Amino acid sequence: MKKLLQVSNLHAGVENKEILKGLNLEINPGEIHVIMGPNGTGKSTLSSVIMGDPSYTVTKGTISYNEKDLLEMSVDERAREGVFLAMQYPSELSGVNNLQFLKTAINAKREENDPIKLLDFYKQITKTKEKLKMKEDYAERFVNVGFSGGEKKRNEIFQMILLEPKLIILDEIDSGLDIDAIKIVGENIMEYYMEHKEETGIIIITHYPRLLEYIKPDFVHIIKEGVIVKTGDASLAMHLEETGYDEI
Q1: Which CATH architecture has domain 5-243?
Q2: How far apart are CA 25 and CA 33, in angstroms?
Q3: DSSP 3-state helix, strand, coil percentages of the chain (rounded to 5)?
Q4: Angle at 110 between CA 105 and CA 113, to 5 degrees
Q5: Could you tell me the residue ranges of all domains in the chain?
Q6: For residue 70, with 0-12 CB atoms within 10 Å meaning exposed, 13-18 middle and 19 or more buried, which class applies?
Q7: Which one of 103, 149, 162, 206 is most buried, by most CB atoms within 10 A?
Q8: pLDDT per residue over 124-179, tens digit each?
Q9: Is 80 exceeded by the pLDDT of residue 248?
Q10: Cα separation of 60 and 58, whole Å?
Q11: Confidence tier at 100 by pLDDT (50, 70, 90)
Q12: How far apart (Å, rounded) are the C-alpha atoms in residues 46 and 113?
């Protein structure tokens, strides 16, 4: 089977500080991977490097995506190829409404002479807005401006659903969500995954297993000091909730 993502001996850091110290990770289509670990051990660094954040420098190792060299791609090339990052702290875009943003992002992935049809676009917006229980004026609001923490996280999932990525990275998508919002986010992620399972892989970075009531991972990885030190199934996340990381 062709690997969706293969991270090999990855060393990376920021401002001359090495954070990832030889990390290895493989993801096949149809797999959900959860990454956990103490603060400052490289979880968000991994997601940023995969997405191409220029703040981070790769000093050693490789990342391949669908057997292509991901490190040779620009950020926009990675996005067009189907790599998606739901950020821990979503940015605000004043002056750009959600409708404009989503339409532009969708068309950037399509052929120049084949933009999305307006009727199809509005149908998708309406359907997704209802599923994620976004406010009626969602489309006209500026991207994340004036949004609550929960609305920002749901908006990340809104973008995910419409952009139809193949490699999905969710960086603490559950942080700041109340019980109802976690259910909404979790169920919509799982619904998308089941509809696109044959070509989609998901990385979920989290501190808490509560999201896993709705999303069932194939693998749970623990990162400490820049490398994966333990891998298990969903029961590993539940075990960590009781014991913490000290025994790992």
Answers
A1: 3-Layer(aba) Sandwich (3.40)
A2: 10
A3: 40, 30, 35
A4: 120
A5: 5-243
A6: buried
A7: 206
A8: 999 999 999 999 999 899 999 999 988 999 999 999 999 999 999 999 999 888 89
A9: no
A10: 6
A11: very high
A12: 36
Radius of gyration from C-alpha coordinates of the chain? 18
Place of tokens 């959900």: 32
Report the length, in residues, of the chain: 248
Residue type, 236: L
Ramachandran sector of residue 2 (left: φ over 0; alpha: ψ -120 to 50; beta: rest): beta
pLDDT surpasses 70 at 1: no
State which H helix or E strand residue 119 sits in.
Answer: helix 118-132
Which pLDDT score, from 0 to 100, does residue 16 have? 87
Count of H-run helices and E-run strands, the chain:
7, 12
* DSSP symbols for 44-68: HHHHHHHHT-TTSEEEEEEEEETTE
Higher-scoring residue by pLDDT: 64, 87: 64
